[in-house]
Design brief:
This protein is α+β, with helices and mostly antiparallel strands. The protein is 48% helix and 18% strand. It is built from 16 helices and 16 strands. The strands form 4 sheets. A 5-stranded antiparallel β-sheet has the order 4-3-2-1-5. A hairpin with a 3-residue loop joins strand 2 and strand 3. Helix 3 runs antiparallel to helix 4 and helix 11 packs across helix 12. The longest helix has 27 residues. The protein starts with a helix and ends with a helix.
Length: 500
């Protein structure tokens, strides 16, 4: 008799419904996540079959039948209804994941999907409790209200972070990858944003985790919008030994010779104040992104020093410095040192290995050359037989019709032709009026033979210049290979010259 009852239960439609439900779960997990449409079709198919079996058995998932016992199949009824509700939830969620899409707003779409999915799961869970297990929902809701108050007080900070995260997701004050600055001084690039916290990658390469409730209470500046460019200001004090307009022109030249600053919009120089001790100026320029600020500031300060040195300007003393009025430099009394070839050579790192007498001898051979604005000094593919050291002005390098760099006072060019016998990789043009000191090849012959360290330094300079000129084309030698290549070329050129 027991065997006949077991056989009857296994042959019943409810047992078939349980098998179909379990098979649907297995097949759903076997389908890859990327094939979301196939998953949805499978979910709908199994759900439709289960619904048909329930209707055929005259069992409604919405009406509680409490008269059944375990002996007459109550367990099969419970499991069948439970599986039906689970498949209903999955079918609805499948529709939500595929068809609830907000164009160009993926974060908002994902948030809305998660909220609706959570509501579906909550509704299905309450339905299962009411229609499958017969638990009175009203009493449960009243009891859960007290529990919710207790949990709400205990999880107040966490819930505050979650709701703040929802508000920021909908408001979109920033996106992943944006650089933001907070009112407390914290700044960095947004690398992750969750419901509870936001992660910033700072300029020190550290990750700062900010709870969303804290982030929502701070003032926020998004420097990545409308674009990544960032404005930088520098305050300088120059001794008033020249007319302010001349000093401003020198500062403008320093900004124009920078390679780290953007050319559009053009950098500006503002005169902030003038007294007996100093002319105060504000240099304003923009960089490609906030991470470039330090590099650009360092380069601009170096260029300001070089251009001031070339123009005979003196930096002013700090405002709090104590000095007698008669000791202040004026246009009539100031005697700034003139930049001679010897002083330029003394300041250049590539000539550090030379003795003082060798530097003086090299400087004595220098010839001064002048170029007007717009003059082409050398064209791409031509070779120079002299080393040109920029005394004053700005030289711009062009390669394939595009700007490849700029040279300021203290920089040099022509070393590829002088030392390696190679043609120039760029066209060099005077952006402003330019003065250069020219040193010919005859002065370098004895030095290369007697000073191997000088050849090494020159080879490094040549390789760095070649890599810089070819970087925009995506080609070029690696640093190690190019260094050895130029070092060999230098020795070959001067061996041939000595043999000749």
């Amino acid at each position: 008799m027991d065997q006949m009852s077991a056989s009857a239960l296994l042959a019943s439609p409810l047992a078939h419904l349980d098998l179909v439900g379990l098979a649907g779960i297995l097949v759903w997990h076997l389908i890859p996540r990327q094939r979301s449409t196939t998953r949805l079709v499978v979910q709908i198919g199994f759900f439709a079959v289960m619904t048909a079996i329930l209707l055929h058995s005259n069992i409604s998932p919405f009406i509680l039948e409490g008269h059944r016992t375990a002996e007459d199949g109550a367990l099969l009824v419970v499991s069948a209804r439970l599986l039906w509700w689970v498949h209903l939830a999955w079918a609805i969620i499948g529709f939500i994941r595929i068809y609830l899409v907000l164009d160009r707003h993926p974060r908002e779409a994902r948030l809305l999907q998660d909220l609706i999915v959570g509501t579906v799961y909550l509704g299905v869970a309450l339905s299962i409790l009411a229609f499958v297990f017969g638990i009175p929902i009203g009493t449960l809701v009243a009891t859960s209200g007290v529990v919710a108050i207790i949990l709400g007080l205990a999880l107040q900070n966490t819930l505050g972070d979650v709701f703040s995260g929802v508000a920021m997701t909908l408001g979109r004050p920033f996106a992943i990858g944006d650089w933001i600055v907070l009112s407390d001084g914290t700044e960095g690039r947004v690398v992750e944003s969750t419901w509870r916290s936001t992660h910033l990658l700072t300029g020190s390469n550290n990750i700062v985790v900010l709870p969303n409730s804290v982030l929502a209470g701070l003032g926020l500046t998004n420097v990545s919008r409308p674009d990544e460019t960032h404005s930088v200001s520098l305050i300088l004090r120059v001794a008033p030994t020249r007319m302010p307009v001349i000093i401003a022109d020198v500062m403008q030249s320093a900004l124009l010779s920078s390679e780290s600053t953007l050319k559009e919009p053009p950098p500006t120089v503002a005169l902030r104040g003038l007294d007996a001790t100093a002319l105060e100026l504000e240099l304003n320029f923009r960089v490609a992104n906030p991470a470039q600020r330090t590099k650009a500031k360092n380069e601009v300060l170096d260029l300001v020093y070089r251009h001031c040195k070339a123009a005979g300007l003196l930096l002013a003393l700090p405002p709090n410095a104590v000095i007698a009025p008669q000791e202040l430099p004026t246009e009539e009394t100031a005697r700034p040192p003139q930049v001679s070839p010897a002083e330029l050579i003394e300041a250049m790192p590539i000539f550090a290995a030379l003795a003082y007498e060798e530097k003086r001898a090299l400087a004595d051979t220098a010839v001064t050359r002048e170029y007007r604005k717009g003059d082409v000094i050398i064209r791409e593919g031509e070779a120079l037989s002299s080393l040109m050291i920029v005394r004053a002005g700005i030289v711009v390098m062009h390669r394939d019709g595009r700007e490849a760099g700029r040279l300021a006072p203290g920089d040099f060019f022509g070393e590829t032709g002088l030392l390696a016998g190679m043609a120039e990789a760029c066209t060099l043009e005077a952006l402003t009026r330019v003065t250069v000191y020219e040193i010919d090849q005859a002065a370098f012959g004895p030095l290369i033979g007697n000073r191997p360290a000088l050849a090494e330094d020159l080879a490094f300079s040549l390789s760095a210049r070649a890599e810089k000129a070819q970087a925009h084309a995506g080609a070029g030698l690696t640093h190690g290979r190019s260094h050895h290549f130029f070092l060999g070329a230098i020795h070959t050129v001067f061996r041939k010259r000595s043999a000749g």
